[in-house]
TrEMBL record:
Lineage of source species: Eukaryota, Fungi, Dikarya, Basidiomycota, Agaricomycotina
Gene3D superfamilies, alphabetized: Tetratricopeptide repeat domain
Name recorded for this polypeptide: Anaphase-promoting complex subunit 5 domain-containing protein
Occurrences of domain Anaphase-promoting complex subunit (ranges): 136-164
InterPro entries: Apc5_dom, TPR-like_helical_dom_sf
Coiled coil: none
């Protein structure tokens, strides 16, 4: 419910909902930790995001740290079940640390998340390549923030290659994300003074978005024309 409210822009209501859920799960986890610690960790992870959305970065960091501690325990006991969730919490921890200017710690957290996600993506690429591309993009930003420009470029290049494959299979879901990654890669190339390559990356991103938009518009127009013709045949 909290996520749905957040999607609707009702951040305060979303915060109240996830706080209530966290209180309930904390009570249940105190009585039966084996059964409810995972649910408590998930609710804390979501509450951290809501706190960040509302401009409370210190509280958001405290909450994600608790979620991360729980996921580390869960993943140590059942890595196959919880390494994916641990990686997500590490990525969120990286974002919270970055929000507070702790860039070195933020980089350490996202690097650990990438390592975990990379293993999962090797085993199940269809399930985890999309998230790996997000983590690599975030790692590129953290590296860039710390002045590690070559490493930042390497990370975003890998993200771009993953998103090329994803966009080829599911353009509606990934073309916009590929364009964002190409824009990021353009920035990383520009940081290194490679302006010709930066321009080419930017142009590729723009061309991809325009091409996809025209394809969607064409489908809408064809569908509308077909509906009109079909309607005419029925009326006649």
């Amino acid at each position: 419910m909290s996520n749905c409210l957040s999607d609707l822009g009702r951040q305060e209501d979303a915060m109240m909902a996830i706080q209530e859920a966290s209180v309930l799960y904390r009570t249940l986890a105190a009585e039966r930790p084996a059964a409810y610690n995972a649910s408590l960790a998930m609710s804390l992870n979501n509450m951290s995001t809501r706190l960040s959305d509302l401009g409370s970065p210190e509280e958001a960091l405290t909450v994600i740290q608790e979620a991360l501690d729980l996921y580390r325990i869960l993943a140590a006991e059942r890595p196959a079940a919880f390494n994916a969730d641990l990686a997500i919490s590490l990525s969120n921890m990286s974002n919270r640390l970055s929000d507070l200017g702790s860039q070195e710690e933020a980089l350490t957290a996202i690097q650990e998340a990438v390592v975990l996600r990379r293993v999962l993506a090797v085993e199940r690429p269809a399930a985890f390549n999309a998230d790996l591309s997000v983590f690599l993009s975030n790692m590129s930003h953290r590296l860039s923030d710390l002045g590690s420009r070559e490493e930042a470029l390497m990370a975003i290049r890998e993200a771009v290659e993953l998103r090329r494959g994803l966009a080829a299979e599911r353009p509606a879901a990934f073309n916009a994300k590929l364009a964002r990654s190409l824009d990021d890669m353009s920035n990383r190339l520009s940081d290194l003074g490679r302006h010709g390559e930066a321009l080419a990356a930017m142009q590729e991103g723009i061309a991809g978005v325009v091409t996809y938009g025209l394809q969607m518009l064409s489908r809408v127009n064809v569908g509308s024309t077909s509906s009109i013709l079909l309607g005419s045949m029925v009326l006649d």
